[in-house]
Amino acid sequence: MEINYYKWYSYELKRDMEYKIYGTKGKPFIYFPTQYNRFYEVEEKGVVDTLRYLIDGEQIVLISCDSLDSESLSNYGYWDKNKRLELYEDYYNYFFNELYIALKGKFGFSELPIVFGMSFGAYQAMNFFLRRPELFSGVFAMSGIYRISFFIKDYYNELAFYNSPIDSVIMLNNPAYIKLYNKKKIMMIVSNGAFENDSYNDTVDLEREFNRKGIKNETYYWSNNYPHDFSSWNIYLNYYIKKFLD
For helices 230-245 and 47-56, what crossing angle results, to 10°? Predict the structure, then answer.
């Protein structure tokens, strides 16, 4: 497996940003880390090992990007929630205006990438997919949180709405967007195990809103033997990744 590390200055974020690419050929899978974690999490938590056979077989390329959630949405000790949302929006702009463009230049994106992640990473993947569906071929989300209120409680403004997947789908009334979503692949997995309560409830609610809008999705619920942890997520990933690729 060829592994490449990149670090370069982001003008959107006014700082250096890092990411890693595992493999050289195949469908691009862009990974978002879990809460408070970094791009190298994929190696430490077994995600690379779980996907190794697909990377070595040139079926997928794994791209692990960095995160700023500890400073933005997950910075619970900072009282200015609007500033936290603004920094998260800066990260959104970094992803699409800089990282996505760099990756497209490298790979061409003849096949549009998949975004995926677990927990907070699932939130980011779903959020970015719903906001810019034309740039992705699908989203693979495990044990996600899909309401912005989880991070900022009762504070709400326009930025909060744009970054709240369930709210966005509830308010969706554009047939063109629904048609576009239905050309993509949406898969969610969650359990009712330990520490999964918020993720379980949000997954139930988002699946319901997708179905109400006529948006195709594949949602799977596992038993309470599977906690909110990589011990579960690597099982889900291994179990469903081929189904997702079919």
Answer: 20
